[in-house]
Design brief:
Elements (H helix, E strand, L loop, with lengths): L1 H29 L4 E3 L2 E3 L3 E8 L4 E4 L2 E5 L2 E5 L2 E8 L6 E7 L4 E7 L16 E5 L5 E6 L9 E6 L12 E5 L10 E4 L5 E5 L4 E5 L16 H20 L4 H9 L1 E6 L6 E5 L5 E3 L17 E3 L3
Parallel strand pairs: 3-9
Antiparallel strand pairs: 1-2, 3-6, 4-5, 4-7, 7-8, 10-11, 11-12, 12-13, 14-15, 15-16, 17-18, 19-20
Length: 304
Amino acid sequence: MPFQVNRRLLYTLASGLVIFLGTFLAIQYASGAYRFTESGVSPVTGLLSANSFPNGAEVYIDDRLVSATDDTIYLKPGSYQIEIRKDGFWPWRKTVDVEGELVTQTNAQLFPIAPSLVPLTFTGVENVTPSPDGQKILYYTASASAQTKNGLYVLELVDNLLSLQRGPKQIAQNVPGIDLSQAQFIWSPDSTEVMVLAPEKELLVSASENNNLNRLPDISFQKSIIFSEWEEEMYVRERQFLGRFPEEVIEVATESAKNVYISPDKKRLLYTYVDDVPVVLPPNLVPPVPAPNNQPESRRLQTD
């Protein structure tokens, strides 16, 4: 009986040891601590997550075809020349430093060599005016097949899942007494209204519905007030937008730059640095996301 108890205890300890060692080795293998190769056990490795948009591109490491995107490749720590190729697209190249037990990402955006051009409309257009948010364009047409189709149109440049209508949307028809071909169009700061400054009449139309120009009041006497309200709204919007950026960026953009532009999606700031003294922006101005690319980055601003 004591022998059976000891043997049972021995089996239990042996099973626990096997499970522990197996779990430990699996964790080490998954983390890249070692890798089985044709030449034996490889030392500590790192992971290269090779991704591309569009995917299905060839991945070359030091001029050698290794895999295709999207894939994860185990590499020894070191510096590698990564090239991602896809037929019909410009190749993507970058020198990447792979570190042991870390994941290095290559999110390559591939651009077509000969991009396809598709006409937005087959009707001749005039006086094309983009909206401030960059998501719409307003244009006038007078060459449609039917007279009722001539007038002002708004074309959405982004896909809206809630919209049931695709393509240009007419917001005003041609009417006698108002020459839209000679009119000037000014968008409101929120891109919801358009001021139509025609020689005969000045109107404020909605950009989301069909407007009857004959029923809209003339805003000639209110135009200056509307412009003042729009300028104040633009100022408030710009201050709110700049408040999202770190103080270092705001200081450079407001004191040492010119040609400051805000992106239509209100997430980026474009400016031309004009100061004679170079400025190095501090790292991590934007907090990194979880599992970021571990490649070092530096930003230095200086004039040519």
